[in-house]
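In practice, a research group might receive sequence data for several interacting partners and want a quick structural hypothesis before committing to experiments. The following worked case mirrors that situation: the sequences arrive first, and a predicted assembly follows.
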Amino acid sequence: MKAFTTLTGIAAPLPMANVDTDKIIPARFLKSISRAGFGKHLFANLRFREDGSENPDFVLNQEPYRRAEILIAYENFGCGSSREHAPWALLDFGIRCVIAPDFADIFNNNCYKNGVLPVRLPREVCELLVEDAKLGGNARVTVDLERQVVIRPNGEEHSFPVDALRKRLLLNGLDDIGQTLQHGTQIDSYEAKQKSAQPWLAPA
Amino acid sequence: MSVQKPRTLFDKIWDAHVVDTLPDGTALLYIDLHLTHEVTTPQAYDGLRAAGRRVRRPDATLAVVDHNIATDDSRRTGIVDPESRLQVETLEKNVAEFGVPYIPLLDDRQGIVHVIGPELGRSLPGMTIVCGDSHTSTHGAMGALAFGIGTSEVEHVLATQTLLQKPAKNMKVQVDGNLAFGCSGKDIVLAIIGKIGTAGGTGHVIEYAGDTIRALDMAGRMTVCNMTIEGGARAGMVAPDQTTFDYVAQTPNGPKGETLERALAWWKTLPSDPGAHFDRVVSLNAHEIAPQVTWGTSPEDVLPITGIIPNPEEAADEARRAQLRRMVEYMGLTPGQRLQELPVDVVFIGSCTNSRIEDIRAAAAIAKGRRVADGVRAMVVPGSGLVKKQAEREGLDRILREAGFEWREAGCSMCLGMNPDKLTPGQRSASTSNRNFEGRQGPGGRTHLLSPAMAAAAAVAGHLADVRDYQPKEALS
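A structural hypothesis for the assembly, expressed as C-alpha cells:
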C-alpha cells in the first residue's frame, strides 16, 4: 500500500449526498479478478451515456477534473455494498482522498486498507470546498495527514479527526496482516480455549 | 467481587471474541465463521499467495457461488459470460489450492450465501460471522454478530481468523404491537429505515427488540437484519430465543445432542441484561406500519402503499430539493401521482432479503388462483437449492407457474445487475430485494422495494398494488 502523507491537488466537486457504491462502481464491472483497472468504470452510469460515449455534464469528464486527486461530496458517502472495488476504482482513476461530512462504515474501512484517505469535515466546510473546487485548476486543495488539516486555496485550515492507529498505518503505508500475525500466540491460545469450551463451533 | 455492569447482546458476543487489545483500544476480534463468494475473494487469495500465507481455518470458512450465475437451465451447460465464468473458475481454483470447503453450483445446497449459512446450521447464536458482502448483517437474526467486510479484510480473516475492530456503539430499535394485516418483516424494516434514514445507524450495531420482533419467525427476522445495512449499521441482531433454538435444532449441520445442550446453556445467557446501556433507542408501533413501498432511489425514500409521490419543491432545503428532483426524474414519476397507479414491467421475488420458504409461501398465497397481468414478467428465484426443493414438495412451484410466474434456480439474480437477470433502461420493477439505487438492477432500471406478498399483488395487478386488496382466494393446500 502506498503511504499517504500530504496531498496537494485538484479537487472535483460532487455535491451529492448518499453516493452509494453501486454509483461509484456498478456491479456489472465487478467481474475482474485483479485489483487493477477499475478506474475506467468509476461512476460509469454517470460518466457514460447508454451508447458508451462520455457524458460531458459529469464533472470527471471536464477539465481539469479528469486529473482530480480529491473528491468533495456530501453526507453518507460510500453507502451500500461492501465492494472494495469502490476505493480501487477511485484510486485507479487517481483519487486518493474523499472529503465529506461522513462516510458509510464499510467504505470508510476499505479506503484505509488501500491508501485512500476519507476526510470528515462538517457540511458547511464541504460546501466551501465545493465552491473552491468549482474554480478548477487554480484552486488546489491540500490535505496534510500528519497535521490532520485540510488547507483551502485561500490558506484557511480545517482540522479533521482520524483514528491514531489508522493514521500510523497510512503514513507508513503498512498493511495490517503482518501486524496481526505478531499476535499469533494469543490467537493460538484463544483457539485452544474455544475448542474445549465451545465444541459446537466445530462443524458437523 | 465486583458486580459486572449490565451488558447488551452485542457487548457479550464482542467480549467473548476479543483475542487481544491494542494500546489504542482497537480489538483483535476472533471470527468464528467466514462465508465467502466469488466476487469479493479473488484479490484476497492473490494477496495470500503473494505473501506465502495459508488459510488459517479452512474448517471455519465456507465458499459458494451466487452473484454471477444464471438462474435458468443454462447454468447446467456452463456460464456464458466469459468474465463471470473466469470469476467462478477462479474461486474453484482458489478453494482447491487453499483447502476451503466449497458448495459447487450444481449442488442442492448451493444458494445465496446469506440464505445457506443459517439454513445449513453453520450460522449460530453467539458467533462472530463475516463475509465480503454488506448483507452479512442477515445472520444477526440468529443472535450472532455478523457484518460485511471489504476484500482486504477478507484476506486478513483468511490469514489470521481475526479482524482489527473498534467496538461499535449500541443502538436499540424497539418494535411493539401486533403487526397490521398484510404486513411482514420487510414492511417493518422499510418503515425503520424510513424513520432513521439511510445513515441513521452509522457507527452502531442495532439490536431489534420488542414483542413484534419476538413474534417474527426466523425468516422475518433475517429480512429485518438483512436490511440493517440500508439503515447505515453494519450489523443488526435479534436476541436468541426459543424460535431461534427450534430453528437451529432442525438444521442439517447444527449441533445435536449433548453438544447442543452445552451450546444452549451459553446461548440463553446472551440476551441483553436489564439496564444495559444503549447509546440510542428508537421505538416503533407495529400497528402503525402499513404495507411499504419505496418510491425513490434510496431505501429511506419509502411510503405506505396508499401514499403519493412527494413534491420535491416542498422539501426543506435546496440540497434535498435537488436530490428529490433527480429521484423523481430518474424514476419517471410525477409529484402527486398515487403509488398504486404505477405500472410495473418486472416483478422480482428473491434475493438474500426475501427468498426463503416463508417468502415463497407468502407470494404463492396471493398468486394462487390468479394470473400475472399481461405484459408483466414475474420471476420467483428461491434463495437456495434446498428452498427450491422444499417449495416443490409443497407444490408452490406449481401454483406460481400456473399463475404465470417463472420458477427459477437459486442465486442473487436480479438483485444487483451482475448476472443475466437485469432490468433494461426505463423498466420499472417491483422487487423484494434490498437496494433501489440508480442502476442497481441494471442501467436505467427503476426499482420499487416491497415485500413478497406485495410483489405478488403487483404481478397480478400489473401495477403497484395494496396487498390488503388481494388477499388469498383459497388456502395453500
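Before designing any experiment, note the following. Chain B touches chain A through 85 residues (CB under 8 Å). The first helix of chain B runs from residue 9 to 17.
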